[in-house]
């Protein structure tokens, strides 16, 4: 891809010299892509050995749009086998490490992008998100990341595991080192009217009024500190409250948001993950006889295929939960002004970057995939061993885990080893409110 990128850069230089203008709003902007985006002449492996040496015959629609706008792609980056993990490891390309500390993960599944972007390897990276795969690596590497709702940005010709399932669709979104980069590339793609080429895109133009409006008035912000299943580590909670205190001081109103319905939403989503009994993943793995990475091996053993009737019942349960959560947006209001909640602010993960093969709980992110909410993460602080509760702290030592997953999470906590690692917060809007969460993040 490097030679193609250099050739395109020369073409753009010549165009500018000849015409005195750029080829488009993204002229010369260097970008990278998660492995699964099709680029003509290059593989999209999804971390499977059996998909190697099968170059794509055409570009993903998003790649064509961005190139027409002037973007230059220089590389594709690593992802986990099957994509279905919050770390980045596969038998084909190996383990992607965290540039801050190679013993730690950069997150996943868009971990190749987060590692590269953190080292200024490109200006914008493009990933996908089915349960947190843009937001988790952004959180772990101190980046900005946007998960749009399904149908806002084009997914056409982006290879994916379990392709064909529509119950909780994977979505495309950008990662970057600046918030303005997220906003600018998202706006540019939407203004290219991708709904004219992809029937799954909703024909909603870029709404500058929504982006501007949330920056011009005090907001009502719902605060979710705990998802009720896994309690976040002390630095995560500290940074979240620091952000909230600044928002309150700036005149915004903070109301408590509860975790009602979260556990059932996660339960339904986990059943969706194994609805085919792992058949889709099994076929890709068996194509080359490669081994399963441990996480995928556990996923394959988690459930058997369900009947069409049982699948329909899951869809009924999903709709019931989506209705219940929509009702919550309407009923939780400001106690002083009776205004509805504009956005939520929550943790992204219960922990920061952790040692390889230690990442498990993604409930703080995948709930918003289940609800198809617009969500964005932004860096907000770091672990600080001088102020975060030490392991010897009475509250830390006395904490009684709620369940095995909470016990696992609490065992990972070590503010000395985690010192200096990035901490983010997550901003959540309702469905198809990308402009709102981007605008709110600019506050």
Automatic annotation (TrEMBL):
Keywords: Hydrolase. InterPro entries: Amidase_dom, AS_sf. Gene3D superfamilies: Amidase signature (AS) domain. Residues 1-438 form the Amidase domain. The lineage of its organism: Eukaryota, Fungi, Dikarya, Ascomycota, Pezizomycotina. The keyword Hydrolase applies. This is Acetamidase. It comes from Aureobasidium melanogenum (strain CBS 110374). The keyword ATP-binding does not apply. One of its GO terms (molecular function) is hydrolase activity. It holds the Pfam family Amidase. PANTHER family: AMIDASE (EUROFUNG), AMIDASE-RELATED-RELATED. Belongs to the amidase family. Coiled coil: none annotated. Transmembrane segments: none annotated.
């Amino acid at each position: 891809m490097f030679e193609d990128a250099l050739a395109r850069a020369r073409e753009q230089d010549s165009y500018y010299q000849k015409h005195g203008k750029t080829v488009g709003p993204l002229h010369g902007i260097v970008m990278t892509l998660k492995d699964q985006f099709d680029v003509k002449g290059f593989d999209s492996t999804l971390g499977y050995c059996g998909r190697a040496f099968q170059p794509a015959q055409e570009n993903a629609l998003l790649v064509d749009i961005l190139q027409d706008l002037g973007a230059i792609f220089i590389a594709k980056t690593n992802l986990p086998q099957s994509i279905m993990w919050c770390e980045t490891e596969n038998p084909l390309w190996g383990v992607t490490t965290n540039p801050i500390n190679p013993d730690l993960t950069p997150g996943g599944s868009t971990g190749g992008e987060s590692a590269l972007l953190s080292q200024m390897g490109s200006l914008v990276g493009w990933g996908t998100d089915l349960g947190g795969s843009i937001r988790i690596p952004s959180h772990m590497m101190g980046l900005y990341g946007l998960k749009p709702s399904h149908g806002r940005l084009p997914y056409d010709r982006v290879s994916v595991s379990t392709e064909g399932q529509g119950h909780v669709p994977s979505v495309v979104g950008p990662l970057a080192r600046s918030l303005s980069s997220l906003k600018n590339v998202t706006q540019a793609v939407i203004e290219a009217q991708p709904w004219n080429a992809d029937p799954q895109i909703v024909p909603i133009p870029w709404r500058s009024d929504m982006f501007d409006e949330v920056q011009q008035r005090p907001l009502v912000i719902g605060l979710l500190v705990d998802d009720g299943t896994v309690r976040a580590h002390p630095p995560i909670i500290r940074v979240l409250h620091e952000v909230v205190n600044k928002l309150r001081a700036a005149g915004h109103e903070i109301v408590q948001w509860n975790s009602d319905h979260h556990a059932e939403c996660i339960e339904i989503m986990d059943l969706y993950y194994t609805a085919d009994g792992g058949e889709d993943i099994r076929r890709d793995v068996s194509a080359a006889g490669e081994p399963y990475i441990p996480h995928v091996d556990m996923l394959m053993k988690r459930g058997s295929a369900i009947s069409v009737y049982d699948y329909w019942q899951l869809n009924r349960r999903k709709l019931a939960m989506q209705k219940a959560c929509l009702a919550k947006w309407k009923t939780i209001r400001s106690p002083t002004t009776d205004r509805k909640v504009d956005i939520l602010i929550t943790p992204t993960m219960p922990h920061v970057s952790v040692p390889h093969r230690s990442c498990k709980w993604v409930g703080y992110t995948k709930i918003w995939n289940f609800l198809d909410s617009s969500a964005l993460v932004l860096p907000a602080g770091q672990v600080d061993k001088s102020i975060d509760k030490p392991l010897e702290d009475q509250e830390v030592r006395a904490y009684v885990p709620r369940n095995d997953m909470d016990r696992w999470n609490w065992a990972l906590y070590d503010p000395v080893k985690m010192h200096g690692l990035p901490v983010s917060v997550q901003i959540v809007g309702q469905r198809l409110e990308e402009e709102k969460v981007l605008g709110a993040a600019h506050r």
